[in-house]
Amino acid sequence: MSTLYDRLGGEKAVNAAVDIFYRRVLADGRIARFFDTVDMEDQAAKQKAFLTMVFGGPNNYTGKDMRDAHKHLVAKGLNDSHVDAVLENLARTLRELGVSESEVQEIAKLADSVRSDVLNR
Amino acid sequence: MVALTYGDRRIDVAEGETVLSALLRAGVHPPNSCRAGVCHKCVHRAIDGDVPAAAQEGLSDARKSMGYFLPCVCVPKTPLTIVLPDDAGPLVDAVVRSIERLAPDIMRLRVETEPSFTYRPGQFLEFVAEPDLKRHYSLASHPEEDNFLEMHIRLHENGRMSRHLSQRLAPAAKVHIAGPSGACFYAGVDLDQPLVLIAAGTGLAPVWGILRDALRRGHRGPIRLYHGAREARSLYLADDIEALTKSRDNLAYRACVLDPDAAHGGDLVATVISNETGLKESAFFLCGGEKLIRRLKRELFMKGASLSQIRSDMFTPAQ
Hints:
heterodimer, A: mainly alpha, 0% strand, B: alpha/beta, five-stranded mixed sheet, 7 helices, globular
């Protein structure tokens, strides 16, 4: 059986998702401030890696990078409510792209699995 | 086994092994993360040898043409010489041809170098006026139209390079350059795509090169060039651009000068945003000071431009 990543359309689908997802995140007043000083290309590359992972595409996710990347944000108050907001934006992005509800749920579950790494718990 | 040259080291890449794995095994620890060709953290540049296409997937056409590749998914078949992406390469001799004033606060510096120095208009080089006086400048010249390298340099009060340029440097002086670097040039653009070139201050240097390159390559879509300056007297090259717009029916030019009475106060970002429609389809080139270009990039992206279609050359102040 093909992977979810292949079914969604592989790298092309991830690229389309990154633009929409990133735009939503920057427009979301609950979390936008965490992205104020980042370089947009760097951030887009990170989001691409993250979305590839949650789509089940090629990755070697270990959690360490996720922890390192968010450590300074946790110190600035990053908490569960912000992770919830990101997951909400991810689900909306997927629905906008026409991903089926069962697959949205599958992806949301995978995305939620990085929560404790992001929050450095 | 394939030979990999990295600086002054020679590293053997085993059959089926990736370049990243060979580097790590040899004790070289380049930045890396996903090891799956996705995050682009380990990107390097091949300056000699053939990189398999699979190791360039996901990179922009401009970067591909410069030999950028992802070591974590690169299993080389033939010998490779690779460098870190910000390695400008060895210093090359150059001679000053002319130094002229383009505007009260902007100089045009032209230098000549050996014909083997190749570049794409819009790339930048490191200009070494003296061993301890070096700066990055974007190129305004076109290799097929000009037999010199042209840089536009803003004069800063008490700036070391500014003083050197206006008081000491003279034609025939020997200098050095290194490069070229940068991936902000005409590549990966569809000939029929709307092309939006936005220059702030001396950001016009790369934009002037990119514009002429696009025209030479037969760009057919509409081209809109914006140039922003703090004062009208700093709107240099306006006559040349106006002349070019008269000979091309797909080229439009708009100058913006900060002025409380002008539309949008003459703010370049606000002018572009209100004037541009169909952001999703357009190819963008943004060149100029870091702060303004960051703001512009974010605005364009939020209004619908695709991040992969926004190329930028951001100037940072000298250290």
